[in-house]
Amino acid sequence: MTDPFAPQPAAPQGAPSGATVPCAKCGTPVDPSQASWSEAGERICRRCEAVETIDAGDQRAAVSIMGGGLASFSIGVLSLCINPLLICSVGAFLSGLGTIIMLSRHPEYKARMQWRYPVTMITAVLGMLLSLVIPFFLLLGLAGAGLGAALR
Questions:
Q1: In whole angstroms, what separates CA 127 from the centre of its chain?
Q2: Which of 56, 97, 107, 120 has the largest count of CB atoms under 10 Å?
Q3: pTM for this entry
């Protein structure tokens, strides 16, 4: 069984091309009724269209992963100001943890993210650390109150 999307050999020079057009990406002759249009408005073959679609999806995923790191940082900062029942702290910590786990399980996104990768990791870790500030001081206060009661 052959790959229907594999590039076909080009016709020899000077041979009549019939009703085909070359793919703008790979140069494969394509029947105009089977050709697709790229994002740039060029005629491309089905294989190049599939590659372009996968690349666009991976790029969207990389940007959305960065959103998780930025959300962790934003909620972490918010948790320092408004933190009813430690909900913001939990949200910031889980968002940062989820972002780091996503990047560790899918290392292929590291190459896609380029400059976004270190920004995402830094914001995720900072968000997790900021989310722990208020719970730390609450535990410190409880420990001090317990120690003070024990010494009386």
A1: 18
A2: 120
A3: 0.71
